[in-house]
Request: fold
Amino acid sequence: MSIACECSRGRLHLNSDWAMLEPVDRDYRPVPPGAASHTVLLTNLANRVQPVIRYDLGDSVTLGTEPCSCGSPFPALRVQGRCDDELWLRNANGEWVELLPLALTTVVEDFAGAHQFQVVQVAPDALRVRLEETDRNARESLWLNVARALRSYLDAQGLPGVALHLDAAPLERSASSGKLRRVVASRRASA
Ligand SMILES: [Zn+2]
Reply:
């Protein structure tokens, strides 16, 4: 289950019966629909052992002011200034499946407990994951958790054949902003 999914009109709908997003300003005050937020807080109680409560995602979002024309009752939202890429992965039938960075990073953070990481697409059906953790034992157990969480997410998206590898390279931050891109698509990775 992802926290948002794209509809036939190309808009993102929040799965609001499962996750809660609060767009807020710089001082964490609520931002009304129609206005761009500074960041957004995610609350998700699906995992009762490790609930996510008002976690700061760092994305600027704008909630729609009117119902979407696709007829979905779930609130539509737009994500701006996102530095993470959408990923297109190829399944066993040769079809392309889109993964939203917000969904992917939430899986790694919520279910694996990793916060500083980079998921890099290296082939149509392969991902490499960089982790910041340097302690060898902690790194190995973190990787097991990340791989398990990503595997079950990819399986659920119909992508059981996508290969996952731990990448020994350090995290790459943007030279200009210092910001960490947590999901990097192959077309940009190779550019
Ligand atoms: Zn819609």
